[in-house]
Every structure is written in structure tokens, then in C-alpha cells.
Design a protein that fits this description.
Radius of gyration: 22 Å
Shape: elongated
Structural class: mainly alpha
Strand content: under 5%
Number of strands: 0
Number of domains: 1
Distance between the termini: 26 Å
Number of helices: 10
CATH topology: MetI-like fold
CATH superfamily: MetI-like
CATH class: Mainly Alpha
Order of helices and strands: HHHHHHHHHH
Oligomer: single chain
């Protein structure tokens, strides 16, 4: 079910230009028309822009930021986690743990706001910011999984046979580390959806007139009583997408646990 929902979101975002109209076209004479009213099925916002078109194009922004930040966090976290695990002297391990613990000491949203405020606001900046902020979580996951592999017999035999470290990492560590990283990355993608919307809501993410669920919620706060659908539609969409990522993560975690037993 979660895969179906995610596929629909990805397909809609990829074909946004085909299945919807221009999300930037304004028609002030058709402003604040609820969906399925006055012959306008899709509804309009306070500037008369197509609500459905902005919703679908906004899905592209949320998917790019959520998946992109999860991939960036996975690359950074997995690389540093494995390096910390294979550090036999312990110096690099201690430094990397201290750095990642320092990042984890700050709330995610506050750290993201602080970094995004320093950089120029934009979708790419938010994606990289969240990737760095989320990387300590995957550092811990990958380091723990890699440390378990180091003490297993097949890895010890491989080391006694003087197998080069890159080959040991690819053949023995990565197959054991990646499943855990993928599971956690899906969960982080769910968190990234809400964080990206929050940053866009605060003006630190996507910038007007670019379609974004966070910007839609920011515009809708002035019309909560007059046009509540303006906030309900993007809020429900963000919730469904985040729930799908989290549900997929939980199902994959169950599969990984079953395979390890």
C-alpha cells in the first residue's frame, strides 16, 4: 500500500506539467473558489491560482528534498560510520563520534533553521542542510552494523587472508550495513517532508512563487476561517506522504529483522 501511494506521488510529480495546468497563473476574478464549486473542480487560492496544480507541483519539491536529503545523509553517515568502525587505533572513531554527538545535541528543526538562515533560502540549500543534520543518525546505524561485522568469523578470516580493505568493505560490510541504512533513510525522508514544509513556511525554504506545500500553508494561515481547504489540502498531502515513507520503513525493518534471524 505504501509503495502504491509513493508511486502515485512520484508519477504525479514527474508528470505535473502534463496532468495539471500552470501553477503560477493568477486569476483574481476566480480567487478563493473551493474545490467542486462554481464549475471549478480543482479549487483556487487567494490569487486565483489552480490549487490542484500547485499541490502536484509542490509534491515535486517535497519529494526532491526528502529523498535527496536522505541520500545525502546516507552517503555521509555510512562513509563516516564505516571509517569509525574500522579505525583500529580509535582516534578517528572518537573524533567522528564527538562531531556527530555535537550535531545530535541540537534539535533537528533548530539546527536546520540556523543553517538555512545563514545560507540563501532555497530548495537546494534545504536539501543539503537536512542531509548534514540527519547524517549523525545514519552514522550511528552504520557504525553499529559495521562493528558487528568486524567480529564475525568470515570477516576475521578475510582479514587473515590479507584481503584488501576496500574489498572487505564491499564484500562483507556493505551487504550488512546497507539494509539498516535504507530502513533508517526511509524514516528520515518522512521527517524531511515536515521539516521542509516548516522551513518553507518560515520563508527559509522554497521561495515564492515556486509551488511548495510549506508556502501553501503559509499563504493559507490568513484564510483559516474563510477558506480552510487552503490549509487542509497541502496538510493532508504532506501527512499522507510522510506516513507512506514511515510505513515503508517499518515494513522494511520487519523484513530485515526476519532475514537476520
Amino acid at each position: 500500500m505504501a509503495l502504491t501511494v509513493l508511486f502515485l506521488f512520484v508519477a504525479a510529480a514527474s508528470l505535473a506539467g502534463v496532468i495539471t495546468g500552470d501553477p503560477l497563473t493568477q486569476r483574481l476574478d476566480r480567487a478563493l473558489i473551493p474545490p467542486f464549486r462554481e464549475g471549478f473542480v480543482r479549487g483556487t487560492d487567494h490569487l486565483g491560482r489552480d490549487l490542484f496544480a500547485r499541490l502536484v507541483h509542490g509534491a515535486r519539491s517535497s519529494l526532491v528534498v526528502s529523498v535527496g536529503s536522505a541520500l545525502i545523509a546516507a552517503v555521509i553517515g555510512t562513509t563516516t560510520g564505516i571509517l569509525a568502525a574500522i579505525d583500529r587505533r580509535g582516534g578517528a572513531d572518537r573524533v567522528l563520534q564527538l562531531w556527530n554527538d555535537s550535531l545530535l545535541a541540537f534539535p533537528t528543526i533548530l539546527m536546520a533553521i540556523a543553517v538555512a538562515a545563514v545560507l540563501e533560502p532555497g530548495r537546494q540549500q534545504v536539501m543539503w542542510t537536512l542531509g548534514v543534520v540527519f547524517s549523525p543518525v545514519l552514522f550511528r546505524v552504520s557504525r553499529s552494523a559495521a562493528r558487528q561485522v568486524i567480529h564475525r568469523e568470515y570477516y576475521l578470516v578475510s582479514r587473515l587472508l590479507h584481503t584488501p580493505l576496500p574489498f572487505r568493505t564491499l564484500l562483507h560490510m556493505m551487504p550488512n550495513v546497507l539494509p539498516q541504512v535504507i530502513v533508517q533513510s526511509a524514516s528520515l525522508a518522512a521527517v524531511a517532508i515536515g521539516t521542509e514544509a516548516a522551513l518553507s513556511f518560515l520563508g527559509l525554504g522554497a521561495q515564492p512563487p515556486e509551488p511548495s506545500w510549506g508556502l501553501m500553508l503559509s499563504d493559507a494561515r490568513r484564510y483559516l476561517t474563510q477558506a480552510p481547504y487552503l490549509s487542509i489540502v497541502p496538510g493532508v498531502a504532506a501527512g499522507v506522504l510522510a506516513f507512506s515513507f514511515q510505513y515503508l520503513s517499518d515494513r522494511m525493518a520487519g523484513v530485515v529483522t526476519a532475514l537476520e534471524q
